[in-house]
């Protein structure tokens, strides 16, 4: 009897251990740091190490000090136009980039899905291949291409499109940021689109043609609506991280480009204002919760 | 009281009328996929209002032939005419033929109504006419209650009906049916076969059906083309193909058949004599097409239901007699199948209709029996 009981208990525990691992992981590496950030955002700036006054020193004075929590940092964010214009600018850049990614990514994914079966895996590989090099190096490479005396200028001069003394002035502009973002995030758009388009039954298009629908129209009434789950997945997978993007605007956008990731970095490292930058981070997360929740719901439906 | 009999249905046989022009004409059509020849120099005429079946095993080219008519494949050689008009170069969306797909190919993001209306919308029909036609179609396939459902909320049989309604909605000149009933269970399939025939008669369209199910082809169609390796083995009505098969292949593919090999020893007035050493018998039967000559290797073909089985030896002088022993009995309810083992070891099947309600049949296992049949019951075919 006893032996049997242990045998019953073991798989039960094992199951829970399995489920617990991802939750523990999230707790340890997401929720705990977030709570720390949140706590810092409620404290006051100080010239010290670390550069803020901890509101709570220990568990013992938790209750007495609770009233000392301050939302001043959040109020400050609403007072300085720098912050909300940075948020709006980030959202705008993310939105435009996502649309550009969809326009560039859809034909690629469509071509891959229509390619002969034997070629498809190689094409998927080609999309993933850039991940084998460091993201940072790939963005740096764009500096070499886009800077005024860079490869693009040389190529256009060579083709005679630009005069010998003319230069391309894209580097350190928003255009460079869009190029960098579209280049870097393309796989995140192409792969979900490809997954959706590859599943599409080709006989549906034959049926549409058979019923009198020419191919260009059947794309809009059959192919595109049926690929919508892929479009939604791709757009959210790009939009959400682009809003908080830091490296690309920092390297390619120069001082002209205002994005919240850069503002956050400047606040943290240049101003050493940890409480305000923590508040910036918390607000960014709250802004992103909305699209993340929409995305999660869409994924559940699909 | 017996009801008065209505007007007798006139025999429908436009193919026998030399004055009539065919509605669909495949003219020396060849289709090659790389090295593989799917359809080989095939010529075929189909007449208006005909229910025509293409029957054959998978890979015989029947689906390719239909897809060429729909416009999804282009013939490598030859041409296809519809109502006298050459179809080559006309894309599928401009052809007056609609197809019901084997997989149904219903648009998953549209409702039943939306699916049926799809073709009408492409024509630019106005909304009220579309609504009327859709309602008509839903009534025809008895799906009025399911108009707002999506395909995944329907059963297999219902989806099949939506596919049929969608392909009929535009009132095409020709309806192409690619294995339309393959996914249905036997009972539903039989019902639907008769419904298809009714719909075809009601709407007066030309139907072309592709199937590998010979029973289905025989039930629904006016004429059948039996195909093999890209060529037509025989064209004819169901009874012509069943009773007068033109070749061993057709005889074997359509229905159940006994084939006994032998050598022709005499031919006179369309009747041939076949010496069958394998079963130690001489068979006298009708000579099939293709020039039966003395000395030729040939096969005697006879349907099991035309073989009579008896315990008593037949009177002397009876032309075709085979003696054997009952090896197996299959009781199917309406008929019983007797597998009789001959002296040489080969098996001949005979079926007997069970006309009386008895449990113990008189002929049983290991009984010595005699198989006989009249001279015109079977046919001798060249190999």
Describe the 3D structure.
The complex is a heterodimer of chains A (302) and B (383). With 302 residues, chain A is mainly α. Chain A has a domain at 80-270: Orthogonal Bundle (MetI-like fold). Chain A contains 14 helices and two strands. A two-stranded antiparallel ribbon of chain A has the order 1-2. The mean pLDDT of chain A is 87. Helix content of chain B is 22%, strand content 34%. Chain B has a six-stranded mixed β-sheet, sandwiched between helices. Chain B is built from eight helices and 20 strands. The model of chain B has no long low-confidence stretch (mean pLDDT 90). Chain B folds into two domains: 14-243, 3-Layer(aba) Sandwich (Rossmann fold), CATH 3.40.50; 256-382, OB fold (Dihydrolipoamide Acetyltransferase, E2P), CATH 2.40.50.140. In chain B, strand 9 (223-228) and strand 10 form a beta hairpin. The relative contact order of chain B is 0.11. In chain B, helix 2 (112-123) packs parallel to helix 4 (156-169). Chain B is globular, with a radius of gyration of 25 Å. Chain B is an alpha+beta fold. The A-B interface holds A 201, 203-204, 206-215, 217, 222, 225-226 and B 70-72, 91-95, 97-99, 101, 103, 105-109, 118-119, 122-123, 166-167, 170.
